[in-house]
Amino acid sequence: LADETRAAICMTLLEGRAWTAGELARITGVAPSTVSGHLTRLLDAGICVTERQGRHSYVRIADAATARLVDELASYAVPGRDAAHTVPVVSAPDPLARARTCYDHFAGRLGMAVTDAMESRGLLLTDAVFALTGSGLDWCRRAGVDVTGAGRRPLASSCLDWTERRRHLGGLVGARLCARALEDAWVVRPEGGGRGLLVTAAGEKAFGELLGITSRAWS
Question: Most CB within 10 Å of its CB: which of 1, 54, 93, 151?
Fold first, then answer.
């Protein structure tokens, strides 16, 4: 972390999002080959980890404990040149960025709102591995989200969101919650189909009552 470029990479990753090596090269203003070398050092040290999503490989901070350590070390840094960079905006049609399905669970801002709300209420642990808590199981029963018959599929798993660049809730809970929402018309597919979702008035009420989420979270 004493290297200026590696420090800039880590500070970018502290946002909680995941980036490709090419994106990090543009953010830090150095050559892609140079960034690759620095990422190898950070990966070997366990500071960062990689996740594959489709054809792309993304890099993120390893976990919350590492992020706290990097953030604390940054507070002791000696002020140097202005390291501010323009972070690229992830391009996506706005309806897809707001709410969509990722295979069989929520993604986009709605998916992250559900994940964040479950974490803040103590229903979901979101460290290196996502895990449903005992309170989370109770919540599923109250919410009518059937999590029986999981088989080999984990109750909760994380999935990297390509627009939010953070991990949203997948697994059986994510799938069954999405299925419940579609069945009860909390969300509907727009005309013409596709992965996009529209949250209905019934959905706004349900998400508000169950998780304290308002429409501002996905608007």
Answer: 1
Amino acid residing at 138: D
Strand (E) or helix (H) holding 18: none
Domains of the chain, start order: 4-74 (1.10.10.10), 94-217 (no CATH)
Tens digits of per-residue pLDDT, 59-99?
998 887 787 788 767 666 544 444 444 444 455 568 889 99
What is the distance between the alpha carbons of residues 164 and 162, in angstroms, rounded to a whole number? 6
Phi, psi of 49 (to 5 degrees): -135, 160
CB–CB of 164/17 below 8 Å? yes
Strands (E) in the chain, as ranges, are 48-53, 56-61, 100-102, 105-107, 124-126, 130-132, 158-160, 167-169, 187-188, 198-199
Per the CB < 8 A criterion, the answer to whether 59 and 48 are in contact is yes
Q: What is the 3-state secondary structure (H, E, C) of 92-127?
A: CCHHHHHCEEECCEEEHHHHHHHHHHHHHCCCEEEC
The token pair that represents 159 in the structure block: 């999935």
- Of the candidates 161, 1, 138, 22, which has an alpha carbon nearest to the alpha carbon of residue 71? 1
